[in-house]
Write a structure and sequence with these properties.
Layout (H helix, E strand, L loop, with lengths): L2 H35 L8 E4 L2 E4 L5 H56 L3 E5 L5 E2 L4 E6 L5 E6 L2 E8 L2 E8 L6 E6 L5 E6 L4 E6 L5 E7 L6 E6 L5 E6 L4 E6 L3 E7 L6 E6 L5 E6 L3 E7 L6 E8 L6 E4 L4 E5 L5 E7 L6 E8 L13 E3 L4 E6 L2 E7 L5 E8 L5 E5 L5 E6 L4 E9 L1
Antiparallel strand pairs: 1-2, 3-31, 4-31, 5-6, 6-7, 7-8, 9-10, 10-11, 11-12, 13-14, 14-15, 15-16, 17-18, 18-19, 19-20, 21-22, 22-23, 23-24, 25-26, 26-27, 27-28, 29-30, 30-31
Protein name: WD40-repeat-containing domain
GO cellular component, one term: cytosolic [4Fe-4S] assembly targeting complex
Keywords: WD repeat
Length: 435
């Protein structure tokens, strides 16, 4: 049923309601008439005053009251009807405007999706690359593409990203070990970093627009391989080479609220679903864990374990019902879908992708909803895969870096891909170009 039919049906219901209200008003006034007809007027009254009886003249009230009632009815009823009509017309107008706005938004969204499904390529901005000789395993871009972070060994370099140029503005030196994960907050001027030693540090921006150390979290004993933050930014989940997944709650400070120890080897990858009530993890033990938050006590419980033939470090929710998983150095990416009957995930298809001889396991998968685009590093390639309107995954572009040591991130809007690789020893910027 389209929006115009819905509006027409609603208008018909409103008219029916109006007729019903008018009938009720008429019935009410009829009852008033009947009541007035039953009013008993005393024909004669006498008043005693100083032992003298005075007889008052008979007053004929009935015609006067009836005339008054009719006058009230004649004047009030049109006012009530007019008020009801005006209110209904106003509601109809508001409803129509709301429906029109909704249709317009849907058209714009559909137009945007259609445009974003056109062929594309990411072109290297050669003149905008900057030399970076230290090993750089982690890159993060803030929500409005104005700040870029690079984990350069045990230092964090902060860059202003302006007019597609990178300019370093700050150097942060709190970490003693190589930095592996960097995650920007979206609602606040904060970010989180994790290193090889298992240390997680939270950072915030002060009034002088300088990043300052805020809190250290040291409950993992080995490398932080992966870290995700929920949309409310009050939950953080970390995966480590100590085989543990830790859940951190934000109160006044971040506190570890739960630890899952079902992986028997390194935890490589983590991803949260759209509804924020499920997280998936991958590990060197060739397991994918499906972990769900209980609606009763908010505890996270494993609801499914999937054994895979080849270990993989990258996986990503596409939506609540679908996620992708990349087995290391395989020429296909696996797609898992949830059954509507038993609510379990199973592999339903494989997508052809390019790979290489070996693959280093940082550079997490990303799904860019705005462009229906999956960023999948595999071996020496970064595969850019489009999900079309038929829910098919098609590789649109594969960038060959010639070796496995490639790290980076795509901006949230999908306009920029920023990477560092060992061969060029450069932080490179690639820009989205629709064909």
């Amino acid at each position: 049923m389209n929006s115009q039919q819905s509006v027409a049906q609603l208008q018909n219901k409103v008219e029916e309601c109006l007729v019903d209200i008018s009938q009720q008003i008429d019935s009410s006034f009829s009852r008033i008439d009947a009541f007035l007809d039953q009013v008993i007027v005393v024909p004669q009254l006498s008043v005693a005053h100083k032992h003298v009886n005075y007889v008052l003249p008979v007053v004929q009230l009935q015609p006067f009251i009836q005339t008054l009632a009719n006058s009230i009815i004649q004047q009030v009823k049109p006012i009530i009807n007019q008020t009801i009509h005006q209110q209904i017309k106003q509601n109809q107008l508001q409803l129509t405007q709301s429906q029109s706005k909704q249709i317009q938004q849907q058209d714009q969204q559909q137009h945007s999706i259609t445009n974003n499904l056109n062929p594309f390529t990411y072109n290297l901005l050669y003149n905008n690359s900057i030399q970076q000789n230290e090993y750089c395993c982690a890159i993060a871009i803030n929500k409005d593409n104005t700040i870029v972070l690079a984990g350069c060994e045990n230092k964090i370099k902060v860059f202003e990203f302006k007019q597609e140029q990178l300019k370093q503005t700050q150097l942060l030196s709190e970490h003693q070990n190589t930095i592996i994960t960097l995650n920007f907050m979206k609602k606040q001027n904060q970010f989180i970093s994790g290193d090889v030693g298992g240390l997680i540090i939270t950072w915030s921006m002060n009034q002088n627009s300088q990043w300052i150390f805020q809190q250290q979290l040291k409950e993992h004993s080995k490398c932080i391989n992966c870290l995700v933050i929920n949309n409310n930014e009050d939950l953080m989940i970390s995966g480590s080479e100590d085989n543990k997944i830790k859940f951190w709650q934000k109160q006044n400070q971040w506190l570890c609220s739960q630890t899952i120890t079902d992986h028997t080897h390194y935890v490589f990858g983590l991803s949260l679903n759209d509804s924020q009530n499920r997280v998936i993890s991958s590990g060197r033990d060739k397991l994918i864990l499906i972990i769900e938050r209980s609606s009763q006590d908010s505890k996270w419980n494993i609801i499914q374990k999937i054994s895979v033939q080849v270990e993989g470090s990258r996986l990503c929710f596409i939506n609540d019902n679908v996620f992708t998983f990349q087995p290391d150095c395989q020429e296909q990416m696996d797609v898992y879908e949830m059954s509507s009957t038993n609510k379990q995930y199973s592999k339903t298809k494989q997508i052809a992708v390019k790979c290489g001889q070996s693959c280093h396991y940082y550079f997490p998968q990303q799904y860019i909803k705005q462009k229906c685009l999956l960023v999948n590093k595999n071996g020496q390639y970064v595969n850019l895969i489009r999900k079309n309107q038929n829910a098919d995954f098609i590789t649109q572009q594969s960038i060959d870096f010639g070796h496995q040591y490639v790290y980076g991130q795509m901006s949230e809007d999908g306009n920029y891909l920023i990477t560092w690789d060992y061969e060029s020893k450069q932080i490179q910027i690639r820009k989205y170009q629709q064909q």
